[in-house]
Structures are given as structure tokens and as C-alpha cells.
Amino acid sequence: MAPKIETAIRDSATRPNGLSSREAEARLRADGFNELPRSKSRHPLRIVFETLREPMLALLLGSGLVYLLLGDLTEALLLLVFATMSVVITVVQETRTTRVLEALRDLASPRALVIRDGERKRIAGRDVVRGDLVVLSEGDRVPADAVLVEGNEVSADESLLTGESVPVRKAVAESPLPRIPEPGGDDLPFVFSGSLIVRGSGLAEVVGTGARSSLGRIGQSLTGLSDEPPRLQAEVRRLVRTFATAGAAVSIFAVLLYGIFRGSWLDGVLAGIALGMSMLPEEFPVVLTVFMAMGAWRISRARVLTRRPAAIESLGSATVLCTDKTGTLTENRMTIVELRSPDGEIYRPAQAGLRQVPGHFSRIVQCGILASAINPFDPMELAFHELGRRVGEGERDHAKNRRTLVHSYGLRPELLAVTQVWQMDSDKKHFVIAVKGAPEAVMRLCHLPSDVSERIRRDVNAMASSGLRILGIAEAMYDGPPWPETPTAFQFKFVGLAGLADPLRVGVRDAVAQCRSAGIRVVMITGDYPVTARAIAEDAGFDVEGICTGNELETLSDAMLRDRVRRTTIFARIMPQQKLRIVNAFKTNGEIVAMTGDGVNDAPSLKAAHIGIAMGGRGTDVAREAASIVLLDDDFASVVKSIRLGRRIYDNLQKAAVFIFAVHIPIAGLAILPLAFGLPILFGPVHIAFLEMVIDPVCSLVFEAEAEEEDVMRRPPRAPDSLLFSYTSVIWGAIQGILAFSVVASMFVIELQNGMAADEARALAFFSLVLTIVSLIFANRSFSASLVTAFRRPNPALAWVLSSIAAILALSLLWPVLSNMLRFGALHADDLGLTVASAAAVLVTLESLKSFLISRQGQRPLLR
Question: 3-state class of 571 per DSSP?
Fold first, then answer.
């Protein structure tokens, strides 16, 4: 790297005309475009192909094919419809996500002004090549890493690379340096790709483009990081294998039982097929696929794009939220939050509202504006102009005294202050001099007595302890040119101090409070200074336990770091590779890590985290590509919305899993019962297919649309190693299923013993089973709410499903064609009343048992 830097410095003088067009084309062919390698375009057909390769969907389609081979066209078509719906939802969601990300990429694409063939040319940033001379001005985005060969008071905002919100000064390269340093720090002769020029102008020769730039090297480091595997998919695969194995074993046992004891092997095969169909677990892949796709859609309505479905299942279990400061917690703009007069009087504009600044403080604002650029890019100068507009000081001063900037003195290493000379139209003989800069530098210009200087230093220390950036303000009068060589010749009067800070985003405090109430530990990882980071953290409501700096972290081994992260809330002055170490330390400790960020320096840790959350508006392409979730409105509060929705999705997924397990027990039991006791066959394949038409939409649509639990954000995250189908879930599902089977089976057996015809008993048992399944729906709608609360909770999908069930039952009873196909006999009003009563008895029993279990657990919700 050193020879290239030497060449850049040497050639700036010998090649002032820049590259020729031919040289630029040759280097573009050799080095490639000045951009990061893009991931392959995800065409809708490719998304379809990748979706079809998902094991869960493949199993779903395989189950449909099995039913088709068995001649059960109804069930096969039903499964294929669900598969098609899942594919369509996934394609629409991913296509929309890709389009939005491409639009964001296009908006963020910079252009560059370069010197080629001796002329200034505006070209696309991707066409910049090594050796190009780039013209930099205030407001320009630096297109590539470059060495500054000419410059006038250049300052750059490198927050996207460092996390540090305050601009850094740049110096012109005077001698070769051994290597390009890391971004950040004053008086370096390098400008870095992605940074913003906020003051001054200059000429820089490009030394690194694309993947060879600082931005590109961070992007390249992402290739070695793998995405977190979806844990739920692995768990559902195990469930499917377990159910399938159990179903196959029971079906074979049923065939043998029927053939041996009844002597009819053909009927035994048909009964075994029906039993196998009753136990096939196709609902699980349907539920997982639909829940993930619909979950991504619901989260997108909160202005959050889900790029990886695995993030949805992790949201509800996040235990640590690692957040950047600049641009994530804060607005990434400087605001004047405190003014102090020379005698120590304090004025805070935010607390005073928008009314006029009183007394002496008005002069601090006016002088701060006069010491700033007329059309500033520097965040601190923008803050003075913004406060002036809010309180009217700038307009009143400008209207009263029309002024003209006639001379200025820039920042110098020996005098860190900006001085500007103004001529007022009302008094052209006298000139107003305004200066702002480091308090020590401004105090030296004012030649203050030692006691006054000491008092001001105490004020500076007090403001600094609050995390404020402090500027000293002074003014002087002068009779006119010639102007002295340095501002030290002016007789300055100290006007006061201005404290600036990057303000919190609206809603951050509430979002942090909700995270804490939900048992989620919030940790700040920033490139900013410890004092500033602590002030922001305390203002945001963090539980500040400890602070660790980048220098301290560098001395820690991995084992020591794992222990340190358990008791540290703020990591300050952190480099990009250190962020990655911190995230990995949390993960090694067993935490489920969510990481927010917007800068290039955040990208590796975003990809390494279980849940990478990037800012879509201000964030860089690298951060958005690395993240699994993108916040379109850059609102930190959206993180909490996403976590809330993630918890709701997992809760509802668990409800659906318990329902699936519970409902298969009575179905399988009622299929085995006639075989074991020599009773008339109750269910054939057509009956099972009919029941699946009830079960599938219930568990995939009704439970997915269920509202969140009241305590969704008042309980700790679920354990990282917790199972969707835990032992508690199995027990609760088994209780429901056994109760439902006992009620329906008892009714079926008793009615047969009382002389009811087999077809009528079959219809009675079938109606009772369907209504009992409806009872199981209501019993599983909530882990903690009462039945009354559950009834009041809106769920349009439930109303639609219940209406459909009622219509289908009515058709099966009143339409002779369907009744004959199902081999149903006629039912009377008292029979129907008995089925309703049995279903109601199951629901009341389960609700009473749920209340009892919750009370025994100390008001803790069931299944947690």
C-alpha cells in the first residue's frame, strides 16, 4: 500500500491534469468498478426455485403427492393450494423487499467531480478509478479512499465508518506515510469512501476503490460470516419425523389388528390408510411456512422489511439488544442544548421552548452565526443557524444590520478556532469580528484574567461531563483593513459558551423502557467518547452498569471479554472488528443477540448477530445487505414493534402446535377404537379429508391472526434453547386431546349400545368431534386470558372459519349427495343438542383447568 501512497503524493504535482480518458478506461478494466460486489439478483423465478427447495415445503408437496397417488384428490388439492399460497406470499414479500433495497441503493449512489484530460468532469461514483484526482467541496460524498494533495480547511464527517458524530479535520499530505490509517482522528491526510465533506474544499488522489477501500474491506469481511440457521425449521423437521414414524407404526398395527381379528385384510388396509392420514403431520410445515410469510407481511406494515425468515422466529427470544449511538439512538445532527454566559448563568433552549432567547444569550447565538459559514454543512454551524431560525435571532439581526462577509481566518493547528470579519451596512467604518472554537483557544484570544479563566474552565468541565461538545464564542470590533495575519491582533471580548449534542430520536426513551420491561438488556456499542456515550445512555434510560473502551477491550482475551460483557452496558471508542468480537462474546454466553446499526462499521456485527437490524433511510448498502431486518423509517421504536410482533408470532405458533397435537389425538383414537373393540368403522379417508379441511385453515389462518397476549412485553424472553413443542405443551395438548376423545368416544359407544344405527352414530360422532375441535380452538386462543376475554378479542379469520364450518356441517346433514358420500344417517334436534352440549362441556372443563393451573403457578401464563 505504501508505494501507491507515495505515488499519489508525488504525482499530484507532476500530473495536475489528472488521468487521461484512456488511462482511466484501462484502470477501470483492470480494477473493476468502484463498488462493492453485489449479491446475485433474486429474480422471482429464482425465489420460487429456492422456496420449493425448502425442506418443509418439499414435505408439504410430497404429502400432497402421496394423497394423489392414494386417489384422495380432495386432500391432495387442498395441500397443493396451501403450498401455492405459501410460495406466492413468499415471492411477493421477497420481491417487494428486493425492489425497496434496490431503490435505496440507487438513492444512495454518489457522483464524483474528477479532473480528466485537464478538465473537470462529473461522473458516476462507480466509474472512479485509482489515480483519479477528485475535487471535493462542502456537501460532497467522498467516492473512494484518497490522499488529500490540496486542501483548504477540510473537515469530514466519518460517522458511517467510525460511529463518531463530530467531524474530523484533514491535513494536506506533505510526506509519504507507511500505511493508510483507520478512519477517525484529526489532521490525517486521508479521506475515506462514504464520508461526507462538511467544511472546506480540496483535491484528493484516489488510492483505493471498491473492495480495496476502507468501506470495501469491511464489506469483504462479511463473506466469512454465515447466517444463523433457522432453529424452528430444524425443530419442525424433528416433529414431522416423529409424527410420521408414529403414524406409520400405528397404521401398520391397525392393518394387522383388523386382518387378524376380522379376517378382512382389504378393509384393514383401507382402515390403516385412514388412520395414517389422521396422523400425517402436514399441518406443521403448513403452519411454519404460512406463519413466517404472514409474519414478514405483518412486520412490513410496521415499516420494517424482513430479509431473512429466521429473524422472525428469533425476535421473540432476543435477550440482548446491541445498538449503535449515532444515527440509531440519536438523530445524527448537532443541536445547541445549553448556553452559558461568562458569569456562569445557564440557558437551555429546549426547556425554554421557541420563545426569544433572553438577554446576553441572544448575543451568543448571533456571534455563533456570524462565526459560521453562510450556507454551512458543518453540523455545529448548522446547529447555530437552526437555533437562530427557531428563535428569530438570525433573521432579526440580518434585517436590522445588512452584513457582508469580507474576511475570514480558518482553523489552524496552533489556533483551533474560526474567525470571520463582517461589514455592516449600518456602519461601514467599523467591522464586527466573531470567533468560535475550542474554549481554551478562544479564552487565549480574549486575554482573560486568571480568575475568570478558571471559572470558565469549571463551566467547560461541567458541560463536558454531561457529554456536550463545547465551543467558546467571542466578538470584537475593528476599524478596517488592512487585516492582521492572525486573529490574535483583535481585541476580543468573551461572549459565552455553547454546548452541543446529538439529540435522541423521538420515542427512544419509551422504546428502551419497553425493552427493559420485556427483560431485554440494551447495550450501546459506539465509536464515540465514553463521556458522551454515558450521557446519551442515561438520557435514553439505559441501566448503566459499566463502561468498556476499545483500548481496554484490546487487552482482554476472549474468555475475559465473555465475562466483561455480562456487566457492561456501554462500549465506547470501539472499532468495527471489536464490535464483531462483542457480538460473538454475547452469543458464546448463550444470549440471543439483536444488533442495530446504519454504518459500514456496523455491517460485520449486523451479519453475525442472530437479528441484524439496519436503518433503511440513512443506512449504507453494506449495512442493509448484511442485516436480516431493515427499518424503512430509521425509527428505533420500530425495533420494539418488531420484537412485539416476533413474540406474538411465536406465541401463536405455539398455540397452533398445541392445537395440532391435541386435535390429532381424538381423530387417531376414534380411528383405532372400532378396530380394537369390533365396532362399526367410524372414519374412512373421506372423513379424514373432511376434517383436514377444518383443521388446516384453523391452525394456519385463525391462530396466525390471533391478537397478542396482554403481557407480551411484560415478560422475559423465552429461553434460547426452549422448544416450540415443549414438555408442558405436550402435556397440555395431551390433556385436551384425551378429554375430547373421551367425550366423543363415550357418546359414540353409548349410542351404539342404545340401539342407534351405525350411520346415525357415525354422523353424531362426527358432528360432536367437529364441534369439539371448535372448543379446542377457543381453549388455545390464549395462554392466560379468560374465555370471556377471548370471545371479545377480534379475529376476522375465526369468524370466517366458524361460518364455513357451520355451512359445511349443514350441507353434510341436509344435502343427500354429501350425506351418502359420508355415510351419515339422519340426526334429530336432540342429537344435535347433545353434540353442542358435549363440545361446551369440553370447553368449560378446559377453561376451568386452565384457570386452576395458572393460579397454581402464581398467575404465570400457561405454557411459560
Answer: strand
